[in-house]
């Protein structure tokens, strides 16, 4: 059994997918790579097949009809045989030295989830996001040992490596033809995660700045219905208030607070009659499903204030924290 299964969902990725693959191959003895061609119309499948031919014992290729990022992750998970499971987007890459440290550590321990830092580059600014002061370092820990996450910080798909068996046992399946399913990937499994390990290394690398990226503000506004769909699914999964472990409960509420905040803010920026109706519809949905949790969403409730106050605050915060 390989130690880590890396899944690389690809759609029209010919220009950059090789960088993702090559950085992972730096530790080829301990990993398998599953390249999922999600109905690309360029030379993605040809590049994938060439790697598969060269590294036939390491790389597997799935060639499927287009189903979106979630569909690619689902296909990779079904085929994954490694002890641990990691998704790397085709336009991202990993730090080779950090990968060596992660593999060295995972050989010695057994946990449900490993967490590492991620690094993003935006407009020439390189920033590493770590979890110092929140998660214990260099030890196996549970939810009872984590500290409070600040408003600007939370777990992303970039920062987590799950045990493959756990994801298969809970039957994780992301929605197809849907953007922002990475939020589900780092939310739904958490109540099943009992043991964790945090390694303070700059592992995952990605760039923010392309106009077509899903985290671009303009793109997010155009795709707001996708954001609303994912947020409602997260509301439906379970009631965080019923989680007995208090630190886990607080974190799940924190994440839901962020999702409600992002959805509401983007609709406030759009500022149309339809957008206002969607804000009401989202909050009515939450009120119907889980009215008790609303008072715990401190940040999201602020966004319900007057647009002329809320939007400028968001713009300032965006410059300070450099998100999106």
Explain what you see:
This protein has 324 residues and is an alpha/beta fold. The chain folds into two domains: 4-208, Spore Coat Polysaccharide Biosynthesis Protein SpsA, Chain A (Alpha-Beta Complex), CATH 3.90.550.10; 217-321. The protein contains twelve helices and ten strands. It has helices spanning 17-24, 44-54, 69-79, 96-106, 164-169, 182-185, 217-222, 224-237, 246-270, 273-289, 298-302, 307-321; strands at residues 4-10, 31-38, 59-64, 84-87, 93-94, 113-122, 125-129, 140-141, 160-163, 196-208. Strands 1, 2, 3, 4, 5, 6, 7, 8, 9 and 10 form a ten-stranded mixed β-sheet that branches. Helix 8 runs antiparallel to helix 9, helix 8 runs parallel beside helix 10 and helix 9 (246-270) runs antiparallel to helix 10. The longest helix is centred in the C-terminal third of the chain and has 25 residues, at 246-270. The protein is globular. The protein starts with a strand and ends with a helix. The mean pLDDT is 93.
């Amino acid at each position: 059994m390989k130690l880590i299964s890396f899944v690389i969902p690809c759609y029209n990725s010919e220009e950059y997918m090789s960088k993702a693959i090559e950085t992972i191959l730096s530790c080829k003895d301990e990993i398998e790579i599953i390249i999922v061609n999600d109905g690309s119309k360029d030379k993605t499948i040809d590049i994938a097949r060439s790697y598969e031919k060269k590294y036939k014992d390491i790389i597997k290729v799935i060639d499927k009809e287009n189903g979106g990022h979630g569909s690619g992750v689902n296909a990779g998970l079904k085929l994954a045989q490694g002890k641990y499971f990691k998704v790397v987007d085709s336009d991202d890459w990993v730090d080779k030295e950090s990968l060596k440290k992660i593999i060295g550590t995972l050989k010695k321990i057994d946990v449900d989830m490993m967490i590492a830092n991620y690094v993003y580059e935006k407009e020439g600014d390189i920033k590493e996001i770590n979890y110092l002061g929140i998660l214990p370092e260099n030890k196996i820990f549970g939810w009872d040992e984590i500290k409070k996450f600040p408003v600007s910080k939370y777990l992303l798909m970039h920062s987590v490596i799950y045990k493959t068996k756990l994801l298969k046992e809970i039957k994780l399946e992301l929605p197809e033809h849907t953007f922002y399913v990475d939020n589900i990937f780092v939310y739904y499994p958490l109540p099943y995660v009992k043991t964790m390990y945090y390694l303070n290394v700059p592992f995952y690398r990605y760039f923010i700045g392309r106009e077509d990226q899903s985290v671009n503000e303009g793109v997010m506004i155009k795709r707001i219905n996708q954001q609303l769909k994912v947020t409602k699914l997260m509301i439906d999964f379970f009631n965080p208030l019923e989680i007995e472990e208090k630190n886990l409960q607080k974190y799940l509420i924190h994440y839901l607070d962020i999702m409600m905040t992002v959805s509401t803010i983007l609709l406030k920026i759009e500022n149309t009659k339809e957008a206002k109706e969607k804000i009401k519809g989202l909050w009515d949905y939450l009120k119907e499903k889980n009215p008790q949790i609303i008072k715990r969403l401190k940040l999201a409730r602020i966004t319900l204030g007057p647009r002329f106050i809320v939007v400028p605050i968001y713009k300032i915060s965006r410059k300070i924290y450099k998100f999106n």
